[in-house]
Write a structure and sequence with these properties.
Number of strands: 18
Main location: membrane
Strand order of the largest sheet: 4-3-8-9-1-10-18-17-12-13
Protein name: Ig-like domain-containing protein
Number of domains: 3
CATH topology of the largest domain: Immunoglobulin-like
Keywords: Membrane, Signal, Transmembrane, Transmembrane helix
Subcellular location: Membrane
CATH class of the largest domain: Mainly Beta
InterPro entries: CD300_family_receptors, Ig-like_dom, Ig-like_dom_sf, Ig-like_fold
């Protein structure tokens, strides 16, 4: 059941902006996107919007536990404790799906962003955090391992921030927590950085395994900014962007180079024909001038001869 528009606007007016960082999820074009949140709310209203629900496009608003609108759908599963799990799905992603979204239950909104990349790209999420704030990144693994890793850059050749067999460890501003999610049957390694500064921006790795050589790893980017709506940090280039740029440059060369050769050839031929035409005209002018000159000489000679003959006859 959908909520009446007037009542929906009342909900929106009471909706508070969520605190904390936002995550940009890089997903390949043509794939499906899924995200879940544990939400402690007993309210029945669920929603999904593009951008801010007040000024953006309202995709779904319902009191049902499941609703669908085209490629978008939401599903809410209640738990024994107050609240439940809200899942958002976007099927068959296209480039037009890129952008910011807001979903939630009642007055518990969550913001996230999707960036649809080319099939050659790498699905590495970007976590945007405020300077001086905290970045908390969840890494999920399908199986349990004893050793946990948290690294800046790659763990091999990078800076290992934490290497431990404990489920909770802190080292200066860095810490990890590890737990099993029995409901979803997966293992959660959460990497945390407190008191963020601009130099924290960059690539990070979390891993789970008996050793670095055997560890399952997940990469993610952290972007520290003083304006969450306009991140100003510099991250590693998106592989899909560089691939697309190289591909576009190659296509440009393949298409434009033959065209340029043809154009140059046409111009050279035109210039050659123009030269030949001018030379031909000059030759014609010279020939015409010579003929005219010869005619004038002939006429003049003929006139002089006739006068002499007339004078001789008179004598």
């Amino acid at each position: 059941m959908k909520i009446h528009p007037i009542l929906f606007l009342c909900f929106l007016s009471a909706l508070m902006d969520p605190n904390g960082s936002i995550t940009i999820h890089r997903k390949k074009e043509g794939t499906n996107f899924k995200i879940q949140w544990q939400i402690k709310s007993s309210e029945s209203w669920k929603f999904l919007c593009r951008n801010d629900c007040k000024d953006g496009v309202i995709l779904i608003n319902t009191t049902e536990n499941r609703a669908e609108n085209g490629s978008y759908s939401i599903e809410y599963t209640t738990r024994s404790s107050p609240g439940g799990v809200l899942q958002v799905n976007i099927k068959n992603l296209t480039k037009s799906d890129s952008g910011r979204y807001r979903c939630g239950v009642g007055n518990s909104p969550r913001d996230f962003e999707v960036k649809v990349i080319d099939a050659q790209g790498k699905e590495i999420n970007i976590h945007i955090g405020d300077e001086g704030g905290t970045a908390s990144v969840a890494c999920y693994f399908p199986s349990d391992k004893s050793t946990k890793f948290f690294c800046q850059g790659e763990c091999k050749g990078g800076k290992i921030l934490i290497n431990t067999t404990k489920n909770e460890t802190r080292s200066d501003r860095y810490s990890i927590t590890y737990a099993e999610e029995s409901v979803r049957k997966r293992f959660l390694l959460r990497a945390i950085i407190t008191q963020l500064n601009m130099s924290d921006s960059g690539r990070y790795t979390c891993g789970l395994g008996e050793s670095l050589d055997e560890a399952s790893i997940q990469e993610f980017d952290i972007c520290v900014t003083d304006n969450p709506s306009k991140p100003g940090c510099t991250l590693q280039s998106d592989p899909s962007t560089s691939t697309s740029t190289t591909h576009a440059l190659f296509l440009t060369l393949v298409i434009c180079l033959p065209v340029a050769v043809v154009l140059v050839t046409v111009v050279l031929l035109s210039l050659q024909r123009l030269r030949e035409t001018k030379a031909s005209r000059r030759n014609k002018d010279v020939t015409l001038l010579a003929v005219t000159y010869e005619n004038e000489i002939f006429q003049h000679s003929h006139s002089d001869g006739q006068s002499i003959d007339e004078e001789a006859a008179t004598v």
